[in-house]
DNA sequence: AATAAAATCAATCGATCGTTTGACTTTTCG
DNA sequence: CGAAAAGTCAAACGATCGATTGATTTTATT
């Protein structure tokens, strides 16, 4: 289930390819595409500078290969976490109450991703870089990852509130709800300082999950009822 | 009220300083600190490369001067938009119902900032860059701008829900609510594509404001009441 | 073992980076 | 007016960038 970001290959050349991809993930995440040099990437991979041109053709093509690997990997994670629910959603056999818990499930998966360590730290950084300063490679992430997720979330929200998933208002609301979860990643320096901690831990994860669940519940189950 | 980001100076030297700051705002926003070169900044300002060292000492110090100017300017904007409410909040004479509309007011100000064109586009980009890939200059923005705003918002939320503004759960909830508004800036490429539009317009602003108002209302007025 | 293919490497290319220098022009002020 | 101060500018510095070359070593195949 928990597949590696890039599987361990047998041949020697593919092993060097993988080492370069992992080093590129680390360096691009830490400093962004422009500021990460192919020399430090090659050094971190234990390879020569020329190996990048040899295996990928150019720095840009190495980056593209990395983005495609990330997209495929994250799709797998979501399929493993909420696969059968999303399948029923795509099949059209999902009722309102199920949609609400589906929204909460997707939110929990997203929040959980933000608390995974290791390579996920770097994957998040890369995605943030591409969101906030999109390169011409952004469509790779959008089409391969962001759009499928966003559309599904919007459809769940539409079912939960009895609305039309094509309406701009519904899409905007879905985006705002998403923003709640993502804010703990993209503005992590700020929330960490505000809490006065060194880093977020499992107790924070629990609090965030609980409050997001509560928000989803209120927004889906109490709307169009005059607030008392 | 609507003060310029950097006031127009009289002397010749200060005018060159301002031209450099405005050009730096544009270039740092567009490409980030590392990728923006002092040559293109000087060119855009109609100045020589050496003028940056002459007026600011170095590229880094130019950036610091820019961040300080941004922080001061945004504080003015918020003071002009919600000054008396925030003053009453700081004075401690704010009741629950007022706190709810205060939250909505702050949210509307933040959302509105995201729809202002001109230099605000660039200010947002700079702040996003510093949030997602903090440089050693990040504390300038945090202490001078983010923390005062975040603390006030948290205190409003605590009053509105009858909670303790020091509790981590309250700080985390305030952050999540903030995230709803900011998501339209930091993930703008995604929401624009999802809507299938070229850019967000006033009708989107209206929809976003309405739905955020609704969320604030639900979260502050319907909580701890068993959902129907 | 011999040959071809794949992989690795040091060295180098032209371009651009931030910074510095020193001469030059403009402004300021007694 | 004339000297000092402030501002401007082209040129050059060493460093680093992405990319390329051509030789060398390692692996795979017959």
Automatic annotation (TrEMBL), chains A, B:
Listed Pfam families: CecR_C, TetR_N
DNA-binding region in chain numbering: 37-56
Transcription recorded as keyword: yes
Alphabetized UniProt keyword annotations: DNA-binding, Transcription, Transcription regulation
Name the record gives this protein: HTH-type transcriptional dual regulator CecR
Matches recorded under InterPro entries: Homeodomain-like_sf, HTH-type_TetR-like_transc_reg, HTH_TetR, Tet_transcr_reg_TetR-rel_C_sf, Tscrpt_reg_YbiH_C
Residues annotated as domain HTH tetR-type: 14-74
SUPFAM superfamilies according to UniProt: Homeodomain-like (SSF46689), Tetracyclin repressor-like, C-terminal domain (SSF48498)
UniProt keyword Transcription regulation present: yes
Organism: Haloferula sargassicola
PANTHER family named in the record: HTH-TYPE TRANSCRIPTIONAL REGULATOR BETI, HTH-TYPE TRANSCRIPTIONAL REGULATOR RUTR
